[in-house]
Amino acid sequence: EQTWRGGSVAKRLAESSRSMLGGSSKTVREEAGKGMVLVSRFTTPVLRDGTDVPVPTFSSPGFNTPFGVAEFLPNLVSQLLTEYASKSPNMTEQEETALKNRVEGVLYYFIHSCRLGQSSSVAGFMENSIPLLLTVQEDGDKEFVYVGTMALELIATSLRQVAVAERVCQSAENVLNQSSSWRVRLAAVNLLRELGHSFALESVLKDKIVSLLDKSMGDTVPEVRQAACLSLAGLLRTMPETVVKDLIARAPKPRRRGAKAKQADKTEEEKATALVNRHAKVLAVAAAVLSCPTSLPDWMADAVTALSSLIDEEPMIRTSITKTVGDFRKSHQDVWDEVRATWADDQLRLVQEMSGFQSYFS
To answer: pTM above the 0.90 mark?
Structure first.
């Protein structure tokens, strides 16, 4: 790379890789993506004398290369996103396959940038590429979707620059707010979860991610709500206890007699909204309970009994409660003697009635 031949070799590699990104062979597409990474490595500024080079963006003149990598990839990503998101139902099978092959070539570019330890070389491309990587998650081709999932996970776990991670987080937030596909929103939630674990020591970014996951527990689709709950539970152990107690304080009160009869006066849309809001409150408490799978903080008894007291609920909410309480009992079998010694009899009775007999292997 540092010899006089490096430039000409990189230029030839860039031209060849660009023409093969949408090849009909998966192996060719993968190697083309890897070739583009090597070109990016050759043309991207590096650290010198311990001085941090600013993270490159599309508007940074110094990041433009003589091989057109910085101009070629953003334009291609924008074009592919437009074509893929607005593809016609009348598109022939060959046309759809050709489009997906080109998208997959770009996915391999990001996969190998992370695998080869060159995530900083493509940092400037990631922000505007996240919508495309998330959009492919609604495709019916499982193998194609898996490649997109792999790219998203590698990006989230390989990023090192906080500034780039913040922009990726912003892109994921935009997708959460705008996408009508629940699978795309689910992928955005999973991306935020991995990003949160990768930057657990960056309080500002982590707080932002926790806030987005909290908001996603109010999504209209149960799968997205449940994924947000589990993702939030994994991050709560790194958050202040005040955040956990705020979630527990949202626990809905048990229904009064005749409450379901009053629901009959509401429209179907109002019933659906009320169900989502109540489920979101239950999931907030569930996230707090699941955040401590083996320990017994002071607030655990209040959180578990708040869920156990919710008896007359809709099946979806009832399932979430039963599963959460059951998981609590199974994960705390080793400290159950401590639970019996410190919890009140009424609290123990509620948990027993909700979960029944549980063993570690049940």
So the answer is: no
